Automatic annotation (TrEMBL):
<keyword id="KW-0812">Transmembrane</keyword>
<protein>
    <submittedName>
        <fullName>Drug/metabolite exporter YedA</fullName>
    </submittedName>
</protein>
<dbReference type="InterPro" id="IPR000620">
    <property type="entry name" value="EamA_dom"/>
</dbReference>
<dbReference type="InterPro" id="IPR037185">
    <property type="entry name" value="EmrE-like"/>
</dbReference>
<keyword id="KW-0472">Membrane</keyword>
<dbReference type="InterPro" id="IPR050638">
    <property type="entry name" value="AA-Vitamin_Transporters"/>
</dbReference>
<comment type="similarity">
    <text>Belongs to the EamA transporter family.</text>
</comment>
<keyword id="KW-1133">Transmembrane helix</keyword>
<dbReference type="GO" id="GO:0016020">
    <property type="term" value="C:membrane"/>
</dbReference>
<dbReference type="Pfam" id="PF00892">
    <property type="entry name" value="EamA"/>
</dbReference>
Amino acid sequence: MTPEAHPPDTQASRLRIIVALLVTWLAFGSTYFAIKIALREVPPLMIASVNLVGAGAALLAWRRTQVREKLSWGEWRSALLLGALMFFLGRAMVVWGSQFVSSSAAALLSASAPLWVALLGTVFFRERLSPRAILGLFAGFGGMALLVAPSGGEIRLSLTGVVSLTVSALAWATGALLSKRREPSVQPITATAMQMLAGGALVVLASGATGEWGRIHPAHLTFGPVAAVIYITIAVALIGFTTFGWLLRATSAALANTFSFVSPVVAVLLGWAFLHEPLTPRTILASAVILLGVVLMVTAPKPADPASTQMR
């Protein structure tokens, strides 16, 4: 049967992909703006714990209504390790570090995760990089150096914020590399929900240990920060992650991962328009160089890697 026999289906499929791409771009790009709003009244680890536990529980409950999967202790142990890396360190540190830098800087530093994945994969797992990917690495890290380097006439970034967000990107990259090298006995979305819950539980403990729960007074909370926490949980963790998972199945990994370089642009524009964050020439140049590096990394061809296939 020829492709022309099903034009409505093809058009509908393309429309769904376009809508899904827009959803991921806006969801992941607006998270940094929402975090800054939430931080006005809600402690950082509490934001992350509500986000992760709420989204993880909702995702897992939904999956249980769709299919019965055996959640073994082995899967939970793996979820604890990956959840600690990707969500406790990877996600919670983004929220915590956002206290000290602008939302646009947080987004751009977080966008370095694909660069760290490539670098760590090359160093520790002997993954081969194409020339385009190597160029992307140099461009991405060069842009980060330009963004964080001291400059007499412009606002300096907080070292605490830069270190926190760099650690979060490194932790996320490490978790992503480890997750690629194991075959879970459950579906990817179920594994993600388990990792969110496990990582969220660790964030809850950290939030309690640092005294955050005793510092918040529900009667004093206003609409904006509360709405921002709810938005992060629903729009980003639930809708964003599930839509991204669907895109990975429906289209290429390169297209699905375009959020890596589109969402920072969304974050920079939202921060400039609504939070009155300065958009200096150096920030614009650093943003362009970082995003060029990420584009090159995401779209680079993946050479065959005998060393990595032997490890699986």
